[in-house]
Amino acid sequence: MKSSTLDLGPLQLATPLLLSPLAGYTNLPFRRVIRELGRIGLCTTDLVNARSLLEQNRKALKLIESCAEDTPLAVQIFGAVPEEMVAATRLLESLGVASVDVNMGCPVRKVCHVGGGSAMMTELDRTAALVRQMVESVRIPITCKMRLGWDDDNLTAPDLARALEEAGVAAIMVHGRTRQQGFDGSVNLAGIRRVVEAVDRIPVIGNGDITSPEAARIMLESTCCAGVSIGRGAFYNPWIFVHTAHYLETGELLPEPDFSERVRVMTRHLDLMVEVFGESLGCTMFRKVGPWYAKRFGPASFFNKGIVRLSSRADYDTILVRYIDWRAQFLDESGQLLPKYALRPQVLNFRDDDTQELDAPAVTRREAIPVPAGPNELW
Ligand SMILES: Cc1cc2nc3c(=O)[nH]c(=O)nc-3n(C[C@H](O)[C@H](O)[C@H](O)COP(=O)(O)O)c2cc1C
Question: Based on the domain organization, do 41 and 146 belong to the same domain?
């Protein structure tokens, strides 16, 4: 299989590999880290309220903050008022955004209640009419991201995808679970395939549980989707795009990055967070980022205990130096982890993830990203 390009209408992506929106995580620093590692086709922002964008709300504007290196960029918006969705789309086009993605998965009651987010999956005609207005008001591609449906009895994604194709969208992203399923059970590959079969011309992007190049290939081959979108797997392994592109082209699995490369990229991630959010907030936000890198350091409890209290850039250097000293007890003479501590290969699926240490802080445990507490739990 080839890692070819992918067209979203007029927008040609260099690879068919996309970063899924992860509210709270897919901010500018993380997107830049991913882009610097290479072979990403398209990054997407966290979801943004269309009305807040129009009101120039400070938090909403921060969510769409970007820079010259951060292209091509899709902004994901939600809302149910056609005039607002259209005006927000126009605004984003004028700001140079490459495409606009419509969220059809948000479970928050106040969003669904007015017909936005995942409620859009249940009202095909109204949703298609709204999206058509967006498509007709701009030149950039409009895409839609959905789940397979509300629950197993209402697998509306194929019908909705067809209606949205008619309305002129450039692609459909589909997470292979229902809204009711949350993150339980496995991704329904046959369900994604039915969405692929339901549309005539536009690409369908498969999404859900991809944590390795092999899992991406399985998704592509078993659903015939045109590309894959990776969310949590990119946080678990920021190298996943470059490794997957290489694997799809050559069949070869590149070796995992070594400890020093992981530390280099993690440090770059922190520096970008400090640049974008300022030192205090950047360091606080980094408390939930560092432990994800540490998952592949080998024994890391010492590092995690320090990093979850991080408050300054200088602290980070101290924590890292002390951790490197502490970690030496687990290494052989050549600096490799002793066999007893050697890492297992990265997992195909989150349910196989046994890399966590029992005494690890809460943010490092697998639930921290896969099933976040609060209203996001059914993303
Ligand atoms: C913490 C978190 C935040 C998410 N935020 C969004 C979001 O803002 N918009 C959206 O469409 N999906 C969101 N999702 C869903 C993901 O984009 C994706 O569809 C889902 O996690 C399955 O893909 P994955 O297994 O590759 O993570 C979120 C998921 C998580 C875990």
Answer: yes
Beta bridge partners of 48: 77
**Cα separation, 375 vs 350, whole angstroms:** 21
Q: Is residue 376 part of a domain?
A: no
- 100 to 23, 298, 320, 368: CA distances (angstroms): 16, 40, 39, 28
User: How much is the pLDDT for 363?
Assistant: 42
Residue with tokens 């399923």: 181
| Structural domain total, the chain | 2
Instruction: Specify whether 152 is located in the same domain as 279.
Output: no
298 shares its domain with 200: no
pLDDT tier for residue 376 given thresholds of 50, 70 and 90: very low
Ligand 1 centroid distance, CA of 348 (Å): 18
Distance, in Å, from the CA atom of 332 to the CA atom of 334, rounded to the nearest integer, reads 5
Q: Is the pLDDT of residue 360 over 80?
A: no
Catalytic residue, candidates 106, 112, 144, 283: 106
HSE at residue 145, side-chain half, CA atoms within 13 A, is 31
Å from CA of 372 to ligand 1 middle: 10
Q: Which domain holds residue 274?
A: 259-370
Q: Which of 175, 212, 292, 347 to mutate to test the pocket of ligand 1 (most atoms within 8 A of CB)?
A: 175
Nearest atom (ligand 1) to Cα of 177 = 22
Cα 20 to middle of ligand 1, angstroms: 6
Whole-structure pTM value:
0.92
Pocket of ligand 1 (CB under 6 A): 20-24, 46-47, 76, 103, 105, 145, 175, 207-210, 230-233, 369-370, 372, 376, 379
Q: Are residues 241 and 266 in the same domain?
A: no
How far does the centroid of ligand 1 lie from the alpha carbon of residue 231, in Å? Answer: 6
Reported as a single tens digit per residue, the pLDDT across 124-150 is: 999 999 999 999 999 999 999 999 998
Residue 39 lies in a domain: yes
Confidence tier at 349 by pLDDT (50, 70, 90)? low
* Residue 112 is among the residues annotated as catalytic for this protein: no
CATH number for the domain harbouring residue 87: 3.20.20.70
